[in-house]
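Weekly structure sync, notes
Attendees: PL (lead), two postdocs, one rotation student
Agenda item 3: pending single-chain targets
PL asked that the sequence for the first pending target be pasted directly into the notes so everyone works from the same version. It is reproduced below exactly as submitted, 396 residues in total.
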Amino acid sequence: MPSSPIDVLCRHLEHVTASDPLMDLTDLPALVEVLHAVPDPRSRRGRRYPLGPLLALALLAVLGGATSLAKMTRFITGCDPELRERLGLPAAIRLAASTLGRLLSRLDGDAFDAATCAYLATLTTCAPPPTTLTRMPLLGLAVDGKTLRGSRTSEGVTHLLAAVRHDTQVVVAQAQVAAKSNEIPAFTPLLAELDLSGVVVTADALHTQHEHARQIVAAGGHYLLVVKGNQPTLHRRLKALPWREAILNDRTDETGHGRREIRRMKICTVRPGLPFPHALQAIQVKRRRTDRRTGKTTIVTIYAITSLPPGQITHAQLAALIRGHWSIEALHHIRDVTYREDACKVRTGTAPRLLASLRNLAIGLTRLIGWTNIAAATDHYRNHPADGLQLLGLTT
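Predicted structure, written out during the meeting:
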């Protein structure tokens, strides 16, 4: 086996443009070993195919753009017999999509996410920070949920809550929301095992909860939370702040996706008595968006609060943290458009969650390598399977 999977990941950079390659980490286990450590729910007498290699090949299928169990199965059964033998799989493999689906439906989703998210987090720490004019002194971590619409049954639908890094779109934690519940109870266990030192947690208005704020600050982090009507008293107090007298702290003017968007941000140091724990600054963002095709203009005002003290970061960096929260929405968009997640009709057990986790893992790996276009990455790995095989640590 090669000395480091990171070393072989760097070799893919000849196909992409990346300013900062990943550094070497010799003691990182091969990805197939990480997947093999996930608890196997099958009885010993029923294990025809070892778990780790099977999951690794399923991941390689996703890297190549597989969007269904049938496509993943065709990829696995079509692999080179010598490779399957090296992986400990039978040379002649007869794997049905239903068999793979039953296995995924029985796997422990929490254990799988814990193993793969820890692996991605370790890879991320090996990468130097991106070279930008406004280097961020604090890491942005977006928390948001996503419903897997194709998984709906008479008993409900699979809904996942995830924490995603702003800078790399790497999922560092994921949890499944309990049936007949919502994301609020899942927030605390999602972040419980994460080191939040030097982290700013961003979230939408649903998670603007007192206990969530206390948890983040107690763990050594900061928060930046949107405030809407679900916190009526707080929202009313924010709207009543003297925004007309406040100076303009940041302004951005961006054009893209057929529209022009101007953002104006003002900041007020919070007056005593604001009814929210650890809140030190209030923020108003006015977003003016013009559709360049129709000429229609919409203006939206957003309020937010943060535990960051004045002066800890620049106004431009604070505005970047607010915009950076949409990195998790971009991740969800990639899963829906490139991987057709909402069109996937897998419904049984934990299989919908496992497929979403495999997509997260594939996207995280390609982002860390340097890909900015995930659709182009899937085309590349479909046409250059040898590059994908290097992720297993079996080829050099």
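Discussion points:
- The first helix runs from residue 5 to 10.
- The first strand starts at residue 139 and ends at 153.
Action: rotation student to compare against the earlier draft before next sync.
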